Amino acid sequence: MTDLMPPELNEMSATGSTGAALTERYTNVLMNTFGPPKRVLVRGEGAYLWDADGRKYLDLLGGLAVNSLGHAHPFVVSAVTSQLATLGHVSNFFASAPQIALAEKLLSLVDAPGGKVFFTNSGTEANEAAFKITRRTGRTRIVAAVGGFHGRSMGALAITWKPAYREQFAPLPGDVTFVPYGDAAALEAAVDDETAAVVLEPIQGENGVIVPPAGYLQAARRITAAHGTLLWIDEIQTGIGRTGDWFAFQAEGISPDLVTVAKGLGAGIPIGACLAFGPAAELLQPGNHGTTFGGNPVATIAGLAVLTVIERDGLLARVKAVGNHLAAAVEALDHPLIAGVRGRGLLLAIELTAPVSDQVTALALEAGFVINNPVPDALRLAPPYILSKADADTFVAALPALLNQVEAP
């Protein structure tokens, strides 16, 4: 640490605080909304992380699909620090060049001239903006999917399915109907001329990386168009190249009315966005919505830097290649606890034959691999796009020994 750092951080460095000591201090002062931290992390570089005790980990979770370019990517670091040293924040009474350029770039990637962008700080806020846009249609009813996750602010929670997240905060904004995910007939039966919007994820990440049948999003587009209903695609986890396409919906060749993005866009800098197309792009008018930090110059230059690196380094192709390699290698293990691998690109789930994902995740962390257990019978992998096949192979080589230690219920 240096004189340029706050003295509290210098004190931590000088006393050589261990992970256990820092975890105790965390528990004393942070609200218990996440449970105790699994580790106290102090440094990241590329696809690797180091904790306060000096242990190294391969990051196969990417900060929950956020760290698209890994840790401390030099292009992002340079862009953000240069922008912060030039112009760090302006209110939304004013505009900035990075804000305009990122909006133009996002719309070009969707290939939707005439679209409009509203920047936010996170995915749930992007969905709040989209939610308010749907109310501006004059209709209130929304159709969402069983298993869907759209955030934990009150509006986004209203269209999130999981009862454990919802019930303790009822009543939520109402007029939401849930239908089985991937069932086009159920969707068709639920949508009518009073439906404001249908909101769907192209792949349900938080539900264990559930991929719908081919043609499902095309059916959703046909059904919503027939009723004058907005089709809102939540790409917060799947967007910005995570599946090997800029946006996962593009694999089905559809054109939604609303798209929400976040996570990978800032590669660690908080940013989200709601993109609207056609008539939906004009529904929000001055005074309808706002954000203090959304679209500020530092966040938007980070987004531009991320998109630049993905294009410059051909990372969409790398995501597909490494993702296919990783999935095939895991399936080739032919381990009795592995039922298969589902997902696309670098958003994958290892399906387990028993509800032991919490045990496997803990064992993996002890062995130096950061993974996640979104549901009891699946492990989620969402690593940085810079992950190499050699990096992936170290995890595949270690996985059988981890699974062999599991105590099946």
List the helices and strands and how they pair.
Blueprint: H1 7-15, H2 19-29, E1 41-45, E2 48-51, E3 56-59, H3 62-65, H4 74-86, H5 97-110, E4 116-120, H6 123-135, E5 141-145, H7 154-158, H8 163-166, E6 176-179, H9 184-190, E7 195-200, H10 216-226, E8 230-234, E9 258-261, E10 272-276, H11 297-312, H12 315-332, E11 338-344, E12 347-352, H13 357-367, E13 369-370, E14 372-375, E15 378-381, H14 389-404
Parallel strand pairs: 3-13, 5-6, 5-7, 7-8, 8-9
Antiparallel strand pairs: 1-2, 2-3, 4-10, 9-10, 11-12, 12-15, 14-15
Helix pairs in contact: 4-11, 5-11, 12-14, 13-14
GO biological process, one term: L-arginine biosynthetic process
InterPro entries: AcOrn/SuccOrn_fam, Aminotrans_3, Aminotrans_3_PPA_site, Class-III_PLP-dep_AT, PyrdxlP-dep_Trfase, PyrdxlP-dep_Trfase_major, PyrdxlP-dep_Trfase_small
Protein name: Acetylornithine aminotransferase
